[in-house]
Structure of Methylthioribose-1-phosphate isomerase:
Amino acid sequence: MKVDGIAYRTIWLDEDGWSVRIIDQTKLPHRFVVTRLTSLAEAAHAIRAMLVRGAPLIGATAAYGLALALRADPSDAGLETAAATLMATRPTAVNLRWGIERVRARVQPLAPAERAAAAYDEAAVIADEDAAICRSIGEHGAALIRAAAERKGPGEPVNILTHCNAGWLATVDWGTALAPVFVAFEQGIPLHVWVDETRPRNQGASLTAWELVKHGVPHTVIADNAGGHLMQHGRVDLCIVGTDRTTADGDVCNKIGTYLKALAAHDNGVPFYVALPSPTIDWRIHDGVREIPIEERDGREVSELTGLTGDGRIETIRVTPDGSPVANPAFDVTPARYVTALITERGVCAASPGGLLALFPERAAVGV
């Protein structure tokens, strides 16, 4: 995607051929900063501190993190230490484990001297695959937006509500939930996006809105609790969100507050779609509420706010009283019964074991 006319991915190999460049998302939307990663420790910090975030991008960053680690120590012990270090950064997004296991499987049979180069190659393939997968998600999802447009009057925009950031910043390119928006916008379908602010980190207000501004997509930022009101008054035609982990039965785990949007959509007859790349499906688990680990993040993300002052300074302020304890679960689980359909790179399917296996029949052979 483009920033001020220049095409970017969210992660790429630097000109030196070994260090890795990322967009520091903690600086957005007020500053566009590109950061260089040169070690396992820096890659792990980038994931843990959310310089990079979004399940697909976390997976790609972990893959490059292993490559950086193997450049310094390609031994068996170095490989296992690096994998464990990266696995410990964030527990919820299954793509983290997927990216690590994929690179480890590629390099483990090789001689230590060959491992770093192979890890870099595999990380590049993972990044390219993610970009292609997300473009395909966009094409399948755009068909749903086009169908909604055809049900409306000529020229009336399709009103889409999204939550958190599942745009290109959350992936290598294109995004998941926003990929259908970008593709539909390219196709000239009139649309408008309601952007949930998405407390506590404000990924909607700071990241999703930034992406839409850069691409000229009509949108409006709203408070998290405004979505149900808009649905009650017929001002939302469909919801599209992303997911950090999807069970084999179709439950989806996404940014905290997604479950409430799904409940409001269900009550008001608004289609609720979830866009996901297949590496986000955790085929080993079935009950999302019971089995998906929910990351509990630093309470300061709730008690403090960071923003741009009138004179151009970035400042952090506290919004809670001293002495108030804070809980900060980062994700919640929406049961499959509240999901209208899943949008994947292979097409759209029911949020159910049968729906998923119809698109991914190879999983039936290995057992789900």
Notes: The chain has 13 helices and 18 strands. Residues 285 and 310 are 48 Å apart (CA to CA).
